[in-house]
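Postdoc handover notes: sequence design on the structure in folder B. Input tokens:
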């Protein structure tokens, strides 16, 4: 093994890969030698991002919340670049409302994107990984997977559900050569974070106060952790949820 952190020969499908954390991970994967497939709903964003990444990147437009979208997406990707060996469930949406103001329809929409769609895509990609006895599935969790944050009840429920998915899936598929893990980002600079904090300066101050490193992270911080978890260097790592948070989860 010349470089245990290399992703040479891997094909990574990244949902929500056109921007934010998804693009940060894609950039790190490409630097590590992988081919990447950026998936999302906004073709212009995906096209521009794939162009920035160069020949190692392609994109596929897909609304992964639609019934049957996962199987059709994988068929298209297989035709273009072959089997997916790394799946990153990163796509998500955000809703900032108190529990009392969140309707069941709004709650379900967040769960559908984060949980149901991610499970559907994972379920579609696993048979091939198991057959080849090689694969890595990565979920992008959150600090709200670990502790309570007000006014994001649907998002918190969705990200907390990832913990159960990771642990159960890992117990079912790890013996077949497929590893399942999660990264739990702290507060990372992104359009989603900016939108969440722009009208709440007190919350921003609280976040930085409880973060020992006293700053927000960068998308590449998540990208390099994801690269490690999907590389041979982590070949005996499965079922873990890895915080990348500047110490926020242990800060006070």
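Designed sequence:
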């Amino acid at each position: 093994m010349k470089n245990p952190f290399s992703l040479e020969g891997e094909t990574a499908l990244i949902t929500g890969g056109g921007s934010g954390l998804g693009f940060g991970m894609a950039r790190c994967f490409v630097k590590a030698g992988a081919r990447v497939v950026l998936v999302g709903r906004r073709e212009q964003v995906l096209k521009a991002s794939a162009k920035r990444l160069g020949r190692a990147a392609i994109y596929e437009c897909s609304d992964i919340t639609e019934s049957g979208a996962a199987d059709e997406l994988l068929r298209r990707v297989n035709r273009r670049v072959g089997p997916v060996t790394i799946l990153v469930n990163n796509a998500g949406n955000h809703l900032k409302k108190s529990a009392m103001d969140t309707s069941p329809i709004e709650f379900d929409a967040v769960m559908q994107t984060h949980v149901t769609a991610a499970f559907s895509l994972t379920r579609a990609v696993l048979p091939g990984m198991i057959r080849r006895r090689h694969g890595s599935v990565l979920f992008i969790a959150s600090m709200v997977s670990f502790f309570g944050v007000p006014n994001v009840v649907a998002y918190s429920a969705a990200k907390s559900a990832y913990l159960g998915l990771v642990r159960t899936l890992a117990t079912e598929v790890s013996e077949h050569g497929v590893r399942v893990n999660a990264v739990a980002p702290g507060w990372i600079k992104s359009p989603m974070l900016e939108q969440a904090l722009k009208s709440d300066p007190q919350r921003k101050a609280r976040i930085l106060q409880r973060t020992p490193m006293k700053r927000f992270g960068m998308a590449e911080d998540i990208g390099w952790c994801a690269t490690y978890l999907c590389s041979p260097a982590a070949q005996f790592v499965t079922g873990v949820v890895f915080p990348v948070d500047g110490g926020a989860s242990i800060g006070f």
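Context for whoever picks this up: The CA atoms of residues 136 and 179 lie 5 Å apart. Don't rerun without checking with the PI first.
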